[in-house]
Specification:
heterodimer, A: about 300 residues, mainly alpha, MetI-like fold, B: about 280 residues, two-stranded antiparallel ribbon, 2 strands, about 75% helix
């Protein structure tokens, strides 16, 4: 009970325990109805034979999972989901580290550089990806144009071949590299700002003391900066993983999963099966393969957060 | 002491490095600007330098985008959905965050973590069951489906973010207000909320931009052109069959992405504070 002059009053406005419950209830209800219930429904769908034509829940057991596991497109999607997320986020952590270190310095025009490198994160992802789609165009790609100008492409005996274009989104390997590139482009700003926060939290006197002791730049990085910013690097990495692991927009806009399903990921395959193909049951089953990984990442995030709070 | 030559070298290296990053990040937007104002003939000549205007610029693409497509409607729809989502998010997340920040012990702390974890249940898992919800309530092809569903990602995140803000406001301030005669509720509304105004403004910006960026739900629920938001309208409607109308397409992408970017930049640091969850103090 509070100790103010109104302590004896029993008006609702003064009862903290009751207020706490009333104020949290809408959020809990909304989440239960709009996230909890649909999530359970997704599990039920995955065990049923529901389609958009006949959405009644008729439980048939694990048949959907057996079917999709036997499907080579699903296996490609599963593999691609991991490859895209892990490769792009490894690159993002390395690049954001370099960029953040550079941004720690004082220089003229810093606000402009900051604004420019943040653009990919602030633009709607589908529209940024449309820009890349035009850059990877099969005929008018500016990347191909440069390669032609410097003689790496489009001449007999050129390093990348005599044809005029590389067909970025038409060749399986290049298409995969394109998807990874857009993911890196999109998440680099987020990771950079997180790393900047980490770097600026390192106590100055610690670095100065190391300098007095004659530590080299490399030793300072290895023994002070990296260990001290490890928790925040993990946070950046884990959130990046979540975003790329579940993202559908980049692949959908860039390649639609093509050429011939070579860049399909779990989320796009869910969409093509469940919404465009109308097979709610198999679509739900495909999407649920994301969940164990997400749960694992969530546990890691909480462990990192908890450990840093104790320190 | 660093020699001046060494200093020049270091500065040069720094600018070179930053230029590479700036070009990588900003080039797609430069590419959009070029395509927006380039004549089709110039745009589609493979031998022309693609980085420059080889023929005088034109406003044709912009004219087509603004007057021959539903682009302005997409912007309006995006705005309406965004504002409604912001309102719902504020009404639900502000009290929840306050409650969790001030009274959470035991079950409350678990609840806070639980709310944060729901942010990790992705639209990619939820859109199939939610498409049945929309069908059951007759909300397909309606902006209302988006308004009701977008808070599934704004509420968990904004609650978590605001909780951090409320925790930074000392309890003494409320206790003093109650000694001065305000009720418990009065202390929150009249004393704490005004102090948390920057936090509240931050979640307004984020709830709005997250709704604007959303793609999967909009793609799933809306197929009528006049009901589309900008994030699905531009990539789906400006492609007729296999024909990409690159000029208007790039114009649409450019107009929709840049103004928000400016506002967003100011709030980025706070957004990050929400992500890092106090891992940095």
């Amino acid at each position: 009970m509070n100790s103010g002059p109104r302590a004896t009053g029993t008006s609702i406005r003064d009862r903290a325990d009751l207020l706490a419950r009333i104020m949290i209830t809408p959020a809990v209800l909304y989440i239960a109805v709009m996230i909890g219930f649909p999530f359970i429904l997704a599990i039920l769908y995955s065990l049923s034979d529901a389609t958009t034509g006949d959405p009644t829940l008729h439980i048939i057991g694990l048949q959907n999972f057996r079917d999709i596991l036997a499907d080579p497109v699903f296996r490609t999607s599963l593999k691609n989901t991991f490859v895209f997320a892990l490769v792009s986020q490894t690159l993002v952590i390395v690049l954001s580290r370099i960029l953040a270190t550079a941004l720690m310095a004082d220089f003229r025009g810093k606000w402009l550089v900051r604004f420019l490198v943040m653009l990919p994160w602030t633009a709607p992802i589908s529209l940024g990806t449309i820009g890349w789609l035009w850059m990877f165009d099969s005929i008018f790609s500016p990347i191909d144009w440069i390669l032609r100008k410097i003689g790496l492409l489009g001449a007999p005996g050129a390093l990348l071949g005599p044809m005029q274009n590389l067909y970025w989104l038409g060749e399986p390997f290049l298409a995969m590299a394109s998807v990874v590139t857009v993911h890196v482009w999109r998440l680099l700003p987020l990771a950079t700002v997180i790393q900047l926060a980490g770097l600026s939290s390192i106590p100055r006197d610690l670095l100065e003391a190391a300098e007095v002791d004659g530590a080299t730049a490399l030793r300072k990085t290895l023994e002070i900066t990296i260990p001290l910013t490890m928790p925040i690097i993990s946070i950046a990495f884990l959130f990046g993983l979540i975003f790329t692991f579940t993202d559908m927009t980049v692949v959908y806009v860039l390649t639609r999963g093509g050429p011939i399903h070579m860049t399909q990921v779990l989320s796009t395959w869910t969409f093509f099966k469940g919404i465009e193909g109308g097979d709610l049951a198999q679509g739900a089953a495909v999407s649920l393969f994301m969940f164990p990984v997400l749960a694992g990442i969530a546990i890691l995030v909480l462990r990192v957060a908890r450990r840093t709070e104790v320190v | 002491m660093m020699t001046s030559a060494g200093k020049v070298f270091r500065t040069g290296r720094l600018y070179a490095l930053l230029s590479i990053f700036a070009v990588f990040s900003a080039f797609p937007f430069y590419w959009m600007i070029i395509a927006t104002f380039k004549r089709d003939h110039d745009l589609f000549s493979p031998t022309n330098n693609p980085f420059l205007f080889n023929e005088p610029p034109t406003l044709d693409h912009l004219r087509l985008l603004l007057f021959d497509t539903h682009f302005l409607t997409y912007l309006l729809n995006t705005f309406l959905v965004g504002m409604a989502v912001v309102a719902i998010t504020l009404i639900i997340a502000v009290p929840a965050a306050y409650s969790l920040a001030r009274w959470a012990r035991g079950w409350g702390e678990m609840l806070g973590i639980g709310i944060f974890l729901t942010y990790l249940v992705p639209p990619a898992i939820l859109f199939i069951p939610l498409s049945r919800f929309a069908a059951a309530f007759g909300l397909q092809e309606s902006l209302w489906s988006l308004i009701l569903i977008y808070p599934t990602f704004t509420i968990p995140f904004c609650t978590w973010l605001l909780m951090g803000f409320f925790k930074t406001i000392p309890r003494d301030i409320e206790e003093q207000a109650m000694i001065d005669g305000l009720s418990r509720l009065g202390a929150m509304v009249k004393v704490v909320l005004p102090l948390a105004i920057s936090g509240i403004l931050t979640i307004v910006v984020f709830a709005f931009t997250l709704s604007m960026h959303e793609f999967i739900y909009a793609l799933t629920f809306i197929s009528v052109s006049a009901k589309k938001t900008v994030s699905i309208g531009v990539p789906t409607e400006l492609v007729r069959g296999d024909v990409f109308q690159w000029g208007p397409l790039m114009a649409g992408a450019l107009i929709a992405s840049t103004p928000v970017a400016v506002v967003y930049t100011f709030f980025l640091d706070r957004f990050i504070a929400g992500f890092t969850m106090g891992a940095v103090k």
